[in-house]
Write a structure and sequence with these properties.
alpha/beta, 8-stranded parallel beta sheet, two-stranded antiparallel ribbon
Length: 405
């Protein structure tokens, strides 16, 4: 084969030099191509005790592993010869259009992960046309979230406390702030044991060990941000002690061992919009929740953070959908870390999924920019996987597009 001296014009086409990114945060986020990559960044940028709080689960963490394994075991069955050039990712939940079948799950202590906290997450959700769910034990109020992302769809996750006056106050404030849906969490009658948190001293109330404090000191940017921004409190519960939070009382208030269907009926009488019951893992429990006034359920095992050794949510989803039929809203929570996980959940009966750890890894990795990166990753994975399956829309996903063990 004849050889020739390379021409500069030809080399120039091959050597597409990129302008260097000066921001260390931006460099880290640009290099993250998956939620797993964001998790790896979060390990390096966040004190270990804080990362363990997000990443860890209850007891031996069996349920958390089962969630991931259930998604990994799904096989996707493509169906080609259909136009997929511009897939429509949108869907409808409670007859409202959202840009893709994904909802931001409620998380507690969010400003501990990053000082921007819930406000940053709500802004990202608003930009992408997705609902954001604020937790009762979040570090921002319903008013804070409404101000951070005005006009967007916000949901409120409710721990129905032992104080009926406080319950009514929380609902009234959420209603006044324009929140559309209450998500009643029912899988926390008592607090589970998180062994990593106990060892780190990250408990309520905190009892931080010397090792934990020294570990936090290795992250001066994180420490500086905590010291120079408003103190972290359970913002929605601050009225319990006249404006300050008494951490000793919080577990006794938000973990309610007497929670029952009558409490759900009370909530139905006091909330005029949609209600979802979160923490459902059995068809019978789902049916009774709907009969007691719920508009649907969130199939959830709390990401493995409550009762360990429960089934993976994906494993019980089809039976719950069969029990409730097509009219009730069914959301799947726990273990979603890839766009293909969303496809699997929708194919097996979910109207949408909730993500929690996936966006918290992004928050720890880069604040609001990190959450934006997490959503972009999941959205691109979801769109590309739809195209590779031969599907032009979310509405085209059907049970025969997946196979499960």
């Amino acid at each position: 084969m004849a050889r020739q001296r390379p021409r500069w014009s030809e080399l120039r086409e091959l050597l597409q030099l990129r302008r260097p990114t000066l921001s260390a945060v931006e460099r880290r986020l640009e290099a993250a191509l998956s939620i797993g990559d964001l998790r790896a960044v979060a390990v390096r940028t966040t004190p270990r005790a804080v990362f363990d709080y997000v990443d860890g689960a209850a007891d031996a963490e069996v349920t958390a592993r089962r969630n991931n394994e259930a998604f990994a075991a799904v096989e996707l069955v493509p169906e080609y010869l259909s136009p997929v050039d511009h897939p429509d990712l949108s869907t409808r939940v409670f007859d409202r259009k959202i840009s893709m079948p994904m909802i931001f799950a409620p998380t507690g202590y969010t400003r501990m992960m990053h000082h921007e906290g819930e406000a940053a997450v709500a802004r990202v959700a608003a930009r992408h046309g997705l609902p954001y769910t604020l937790s009762t034990v979040g570090t921002s109020t319903v008013e804070d979230v409404a101000a951070a992302a005005p006009g967007s769809e916000h949901w409120f996750q409710l721990y129905l406390t032992r104080d009926e006056r406080l319950n009514a106050e929380l609902l009234d404030r959420a209603l006044a702030a324009g929140f559309t849906t209450v998500v009643l969490t029912v899988d926390t009658p008592v607090a589970a044991r998180h062994l990593k948190d106990i060892r780190n001293g990250l408990t309520i109330p905190p009892s931080l060990t010397l090792r934990t404090l020294l570990g936090m000191a290795r992250y001066p940017s994180w420490v500086l941000n905590k010291l120079t921004t408003a103190p972290i409190t359970f913002a929605s519960l601050s009225s319990m002690t006249g404006g300050t939070i008494d951490a000793v009382r919080v577990p006794d208030v938000v973990f309610e061992p007497t929670l029952n269907y009558q409490h759900l009926e009370w909530l139905r009488a006091h909330w005029p919009h949609q209600i979802l019951v979160k923490g459902v893992l059995s068809p019978r429990n789902a049916r009774r929740a709907v009969e007691a006034g719920a508009d649907g359920v969130v199939v959830s095992n709390h990401g493995g953070r409550q009762l360990d050794r429960t089934p993976a949510t994906l494993a019980v989803l089809p039976a719950i959908r069969d029990e409730l039929g097509p009219d009730a809203t069914v959301i799947l929570d726990s273990g979603v870390r890839h766009g293909q996980d969303i496809i699997a959940a929708v194919a097996l009966g979910a109207d949408a999924v909730m993500i929690g750890r996936a966006y918290l890894y992004g928050l720890m990795a880069g604040g609001e920019r990190g959450v934006e990166r997490a959503v972009t990753i999941l959205r691109e994975e979801y769109a590309r996987s739809l195209q590779l399956l031969g599907l032009g829309s979310t509405a085209a996903i059907a049970w025969h597009h997946v196979r499960v063990p």
